[in-house]
Amino acid sequence: MELKQQAIEILRHNDRGGYTVPTASGLYPAQWNWDSCLVALGLAQFDEPRAVVEIETLFRGQWPDGMVPHILFHGDDSSYFPNAAVWQAGPTGRSSGITQPLVAATVVRHLFERSSDPMIRARLTALVAKLLVSHRWCYAARDPYGTGLVSIIHPWESGMDNSPVWDDALAAVEPGPSVAHLRKDTGFAANEHRPTGPEYNRYINLVIKFRDNGYRADRLYEISPFRVADIGFNAILQRANQDLHSLLAAIGDAAGAEEVAAMEERTSDAIARCWHEEDGFFYGVDTRNGAVIRKPGIGGLLPLLADPEVTARQPRLLQRLDSWLTRVTYGVPSFDPGRPEFEPQRYWRGPVWLIVNWMLIDGLRRNGRPDLAERIRRDSLALVERSRFAEYFDPLNGAPLGGSKFSWTAAMYLHLAAD
Ligand code: DGY
């Protein structure tokens, strides 16, 4: 069967009726926020209405304060830890209590602009007000002092769970009791491809702390022992601001568009200030102690996705990307391959993720580098040809890693192959 057809089969197989699980293996038996949004890009290639349903289902789980949780538990979640019974979060007790990168507006804009069907456009228009509420929540809850950079309070919020970028900030979190006996992920994926025991103990200790504080956004910002203004999270948010602005303008909501323009302006200046002249890279900040996090993770390349004007002033950023690519067979590694923390097989400490490749491809085109964008697109397609639809890939030899028959890898393949 040809690869496109295989990708479609995976997305259909992982469809649980209104939402798509990241993989059917049991590793992730629920709806993940950014997985779902990015999966919608692939669904749109063969079933536009189903793509819209994916986002509608996600936003049905939006909390009254505007947060869209990082996980919605719809069905049997017994193969996952921490499941709904551990989180005990949200109005229905069927979600996590933290968020994930705000890619939804970017995806909704994409769906809106590619569709000529008035029914689809009407349904997407109905989502725009919810998107605006979620961006408002993000700034109010995670940038209460108006710096222009929002903070994440858990590594899981970045989506890049065990990136070396979090090592120091996470080390400051009490480990809490060991949860090794409760973990289920290592039953589905190899231990050495997953976060370590000490990391997991801290992830869960943070969850317990948030649960004990009733998931009240105002309290969590102050009490979380992990708080980072991550450059990747903010770059994705900034791009989503631009896309939300465009959607609001398209549907004639001038007041909403003006409100988002103010968010954009603040964040654009703040991202520009994240440039580190000596290292020639964009870094985030540990907002608990003000320390700049001098760890070259892939999030530091994501300003390309957000702000071509800012990145055009920093040509050394593309030299860094070039130098990463010369050290690997398949781009783009999720961490600088020249650094000692680089681990080519361990989750976000080095492997290639097609969803980030898609963001960089888009950003490089906006930055006038279609040649580099095409190199990354070719690498992405070649990884799938070599290793099928793995969760992530070894940048040195292209080996498949993590879960298999992964929804967002299938979605990115469809999206990039049609490009
Ligand atoms: C996990 O369980 O590994 C997820 O990445 C958390 O969102």
Plain-language structure description:
- The strands form four sheets. Strands 3-6-7 form a three-stranded antiparallel β-sheet. A two-stranded antiparallel sheet has the order 1-2. A two-stranded antiparallel sheet has the order 4-5.
- It starts with a helix and ends with a helix.
- The protein is 50% helix and 4% strand.
- With 419 residues, it is mainly α.
- It contains 18 helices and nine strands.
- The site of (2R)-2,3-dihydroxypropanoic acid has 4 residues, from loops.
Show the helix and strand layout:
Layout: H1 3-13, E1 31-32, H2 33-43, H3 48-60, E2 71-72, H4 84-87, H5 104-114, H6 118-142, H7 155-158, H8 167-171, H9 197-212, H10 217-223, E3 228-229, H11 231-250, H12 254-273, E4 275-276, E5 281-282, E6 285-286, E7 291-292, H13 303-306, H14 308-312, H15 316-326, H16 354-366, H17 370-387, E8 392-393, E9 400-401, H18 407-417
Antiparallel strand pairs: 1-2, 3-6, 4-5, 6-7, 8-9
